[in-house]
Amino acid sequence: MVSILLIGFLTATATLYFVAYLKNPSTVGEAARNAFHLLFHPSQGFAYIITAAFLLSSLLVIILPKELIAEWIGRGSGLKGITIATLAGMVTPGGPSLIYPILMALYRAGASIGPVIAYLSSWALMSLVRVTVWEIPFLGPSFAIVRLIVSILVPIALGLLGQWVYDSFFAPQSI
Fold this sequence. Notes:
The protein is an all-alpha fold. The chain contains ten helices and no strands. The chain has a domain at 65-170. Helices cover 82% and strands 0% of the residues. The chain is globular, with a radius of gyration of 21 Å.
C-alpha cells in the first residue's frame, strides 16, 4: 500500500516541476539532470549509499543472532543495553542514510526502544568521527572533551526515559 506521505511528496514534486516548466522549460531538464547526478554519480551517488546501507543493515541482523541482540540491547537489557547502545552510537561512522537502516534492522530484530533511542541520540550528539574531524580542529581538544563529558549522560537519560514512556503508555498490557 502506498503511504499518504509518498503521495503528498510526489504530488508536491510534480506540482513544483509543472510550475517550473511554465516559467522556464529548460529548468526542468536541468533539475532532472541534477537529481540524476545526485542519485547515481559514481563517487558520491546517494542511491548507492542507501542501497549499501540497507544491504549492510540486513546483513547485520543475520550476522548478529536475534538472541544476542535481545540479550545486549533487548527488552530485558535495562541500563546495560542503553549503555552499550550509547557507546555503539558514539563509534558508528556515517550519516543518516547509514544509521537509520541499521537502527531499523536492530529494532526489528529485537532491540528495545530505550537502547535504540540511546543509540540514535548518542550518534547525533557524540559521534567520535564528527568530534575528531570537525570539533577538535575547529574548537580545540579542551572544548571537545568537556562537551563529551557533559553530554555522556544525555543519551542514557533519553534511553531510560524513552523506555519508561513506551512501557507506561504504548507497550501491550498483559492482564
